[in-house]
Each structure stands twice: as C-alpha cells, then as structure tokens.
Design goal:
- It is a single chain.
- This protein has three helices and four strands; from the N terminus they run H-E-H-E-E-H-E.
- It is an alpha+beta fold and 91 residues long.
- It is globular.
- It holds the Pfam family DUF493.
Length: 91
C-alpha cells in the first residue's frame, strides 16, 4: 500500500454513517450492553442494528452505525466495550 492509498482511505470526521461491528459471546445482555455503551459515547442510528449469530451459536455479532467524531471517541468506545469482558473483537 502506498502513501497515496493510505491518504485516500483516511476517515473524514465527523463521519455520520460509521459502522461499528462488535463480536462477543452469545448471552443474555450482550446486545443491550453493546447498545448502551455505543449510545453513551456516540449518537447511534438504531435503524441500522443488525444481529447475527455464528453457525454454532457461540458468538454474536452486533452491527450499528454511529456518528463518529474522531479517533479519540473511537478509542474510548473500543476500551469501554472491551472492559465489559463480553467482547472479543471490535471492527
């Protein structure tokens, strides 16, 4: 990847339709915890909510779009989600 490729893929903030995908263990409260944390840190578009379970049902993926205001906000969201102990990956 060249420097020009990196620059062309740089996110412009604020980004009003930024997708967040959170993968964690399937269980009671996972979806609600993810939504609560995202809503605490950003304006969310609940109409974009998508939930999917892995083929064996062990993991759940929650995807939502938020209004991303900057890299600090995204780092804070990542930290808060991981601090729950329920989250394996944030994309």
């Amino acid at each position: 990847m060249t420097d020009s490729d990196v620059k062309s893929h740089k996110i412009e903030f604020p980004c009003v339709d930024y997708p967040i995908k959170v993968i964690g263990d399937t269980g009671v409260g996972f979806k609600d915890s993810v939504i609560e944390i995202l809503a605490k840190h950003a304006r969310i578009d609940i109409t974009t909510l998508a939930e999917r379970q892995s083929s064996n049902g062990k993991y759940t993926t929650i995807q939502l779009h938020i209004v991303a205001t900057g890299e600090d906000q995204l780092r804070d969201i990542n930290s808060a989600l991981r601090a729950t102990g329920l989250v394996h990956m944030v994309l």
